[in-house]
Structure formats: structure tokens, C-alpha cells
């Protein structure tokens, strides 16, 4: 468990150092909340948590490093690599590896920090493959 927490700390710290601590918050469908580093950088990171009513063994954390493939004034297309863990589970804390592919648009010109996004993330736990689909609202400070 200590190794997982150390990995999480290092994983989140590196993108923040390069992004000068500018962050964004995302509210996803299916009770997920995300905190991301500066998406204006070519490479940025995101931490997500499944916000169930209680903390138990099904609590899921996602960590992703994302790469902006194409950025225009009002849209971003990104691709990344992520790790999903269940830190409170007594067995096998690693839930799977995922490859998020997302599209983000900035629909309101007056509020340029607000965006809508959708993402598909093929995921594997080594035995099976699944596809996660998320959509949500993101605001960057």
C-alpha cells in the first residue's frame, strides 16, 4: 500500500511542476470528479475519483498522463495512458490500465475556461478488456 501511495504522489507531482500549478476541475457523469493540471501544455495530468456515498473497497481512483494531439482556439483532442486503482481493496489494488481518448470543446466564447468534454477509454485488467465512456464539464482556473 505504501508503494501505491508513493507512486500516486510522484505521478501527480511531476505534471504539476511543469504546469506551474494551474489546475482545472471536472465533473463527470457517473459520480466522478477530476482534477487536472494545465491543459494548455502539450502534456498534462489528471486525477479522478469515483465519488460513491461511502469509502469502501469499490472506491476507484484513476491517474492519467494526457497528450494534446490537436489544440485549436475552441477545441482540444487528446490521447493518454492511465492507471486505475482501488486502494481500499484488500487484494490486488490495481484495477487496470487504460488509454483515454478525448475531445473537448469550449462552447462559450465569453467563458473560455469552461468546456464540455467526452472521452472513451479502452481499459484492461490483464484478463478482459472494457471500454469506459465519460462526459462532463471542465473548468480551468
Give a verbal description of the structure.
This protein is mainly beta. The protein has one domain (2-140): Beta Barrel (Porin). The protein has one helix and nine strands. Strands 1, 2, 3, 4, 5, 6, 7, 8 and 9 form a nine-stranded antiparallel beta sheet that branches. A hairpin with a 4-residue loop joins strand 8 (114-124) and strand 9. The longest helix has 17 residues, at 2-18.
Short note summarizing the structure:
With 141 residues, the chain is mainly beta.
The major beta sheet can be summarized as: 9 strands, antiparallel
Low-confidence segments, given as residue ranges, are 16-20
Name the shape in a single word: globular
Number of domains: 1
The SSE order reads HEEEEEEEEE
**Radius of gyration, in angstroms, nearest whole number:** 15 Å
The tally of beta strands, per DSSP, is: 9
Question: In what range is the share of β-strand residues?
Answer: over 45%
Number of helices: 1
CATH class: Mainly Beta
> Structural class of the secondary elements?
mainly beta
Q: Residue share in helices?
A: 10-25%
CATH architecture descriptor text:
Beta Barrel
CA-CA gap between termini: 32 Å
Average pLDDT works out at 81
CATH topology: Porin
